[in-house]
Amino acid sequence: MDATSYPKEKIKILLLENVSETAVKNFTRNGYAEVEKLSKALPEDELIKAIQKTHLLGIRSKSQITERVLAAAEKLQAIGCFCIGVNQVNLDAATERGIAVFNAPYSNTRSVAELVIGAAIMLIRRIPDKNSAAHKGIWLKESSGSYELRGKTLGIIGYGNIGTQVSVLAESLGMKVIFYDVETKLPLGNASDSRTLKDLLAKADVVTLHVPETDSTKNLINKSNLKYCKQGAIIINYARGEVMDLEALRKAIESGQISGAAVDVFPVEPEKNGDRFESPLQGLPNVILTPHIGGSTEEAQQNIGEDVSNKLLNYLEKGITFGSHTVPALSLPPQAGSHRILHIHKNVPGVLSAINSELSKYKINIVGQYLKTNENIGYVVVDVDKQLSRKAEQLLRAVPSTIKVRLLY
Fold first, then answer.
1. Which of 233, 263, 289 is the last residue of a domain?
2. CA 28-109-80 angle, 5° bins
3. Are residues 215 and 363 in the same domain?
4. What residues have CB less than 8 Å from 135, skipping those under 6 apart?
5. Among 252, 357, 369, 404, which is 20 to 30 Å from 49 by CA?
6. By C-alpha distance, which of 377, 310, 311, 300 is closest to 102?
7. What separation in angstroms does the CA of 186 have from each of 64, 69, 201, 268, 356?
């Protein structure tokens, strides 16, 4: 299956927010010439205009793919989120339209984990203050308030892909690791599970957050929870901006309850480089503020570019949906002498029966077939005799509850 039924030179690919050049090269290497790359996110109205003729869309975390945007995306087959999360996409609206949404949940975990450990070392040694003083010509050679990480307790809130990587790195430095997660997780190494968030905060010298942004995690670290922290604890947030109450954290730092913090994500972030940035944490001692760069390394962006672009290509050319958050995940190996048809439909009874009935009515032989559903939609991959594939495509478009049909060569 080296070609698609729709000419590659007519397939339009739009990549926003300076997606890695690795992705661009992957598309062009596979014969797709209509690749447009922009360095920024687009406002909703501009994105609505740009997406009308787009078949594949690539974004990072700034672009907001709303229901209005998706309603205008008549040709859109898939969205690639070149980042960890997919919360910037209206997944319900994408599901209803049969648009596959992919991301790269593992590609930058190492980059974030390394930076968390680096921030912990800087903060526990109070390097931000000493660095600031040195730049002002003040010599602060002292050991008071500076400690080693070895022997300290790291509390990880959210023991997922990044949390577990941080756990392994921290143990290699001689730290004791405890973690809290709403789901039961198998500990790595000598890490141990804390039954409650309060218990973790009370024991940890360094607390690091690695949770998604949901209703239950909004302001997870707040005035109430901060009072449970050990006196002089350090807090690191490289997760999501909404999971920490920054005003409450500022007061905790000013009171001495918290001795230092590193924050990389914020509730409100500038649209582009050079825009003004404000935070309640600015000007506080022993605080590291970074501009959402936890996963921003050359290695991570290259890995993300390759991972997501490969998922998009596999879906476009083979119908493979592994890693999709909307279309059910499935795959069939190529069948010699056949053409592949992708059928996305509402998840109601009788659709597969209707597909097979229509094809058998016209004596169209099914070489291979697979169905998978989620709560809202079903996804059928059908391989049929290539001589009758166009007729089969027409028949499947007429099946009741059909959302989208695509013929592959």
1. 289
2. 35
3. no
4. none
5. 404
6. 311
7. 34, 40, 20, 34, 44
What's the CA dihedral at 219, 225, 226, 227 to 10 degrees?
A: 150
Residue 55 has a pLDDT of: 97
Helix, strand or coil for residue 242? Answer: helix
The model carries a pTM of 0.83
Count other C-beta atoms under 10 Å from residue 392's C-beta.
25
- Residue 163 sits at φ, ψ, to 5 deg, of -55, -40
Domain check: are 280 and 165 in the same one? yes
Tokens of 267: 């509730």
Domain match, 129 and 182 both: yes
3-state SS, 90-130, equals CHHHHHHCCCEEECCCCCCHHHHHHHHHHHHHHHHCCHHHH
User: 317: domain range?
Assistant: 1-107+298-327
Catalytic residues: 240, 269, 292
When pLDDT is cut at 50, 70 and 90, the band that residue 5 belongs to is: low
Degrees to nearest 5, angle at CA 198 with 192 and 199: 35
Listed residues 230, 261, 289: the one ending a domain: 289
Q: What percent of the chain has pLDDT over 70?
A: 99
CATH number of the domain that 314 lies in? Answer: 3.40.50.720
pLDDT mean over 195-209: 97
- Among 69, 70, 65, 67, residue whose Cα is nearest residue 85: 65
SS3 sequence of 369-405: EEEEECCCEEEEEEEEEHHHHHHHHHHHHCCCCEEEE
Type and span of the H or E element at 135: helix 127-135
Token readout for 243 is: 């999971």
pLDDT surpasses 60 at 2: no
Please count the structural domains in the chain.
3
Tens digits of per-residue pLDDT, 18-72?
999 999 999 999 999 999 999 999 999 999 999 999 999 999 988 999 999 999 9
Q: Are residues 184 and 65 in the same domain?
A: no
Q: What is the pLDDT of residues 369-404, one digit of tens each?
A: 999 999 999 999 999 998 899 999 999 999 999 999
Verify that 247 and 126 share a domain, yes or no. Answer: yes
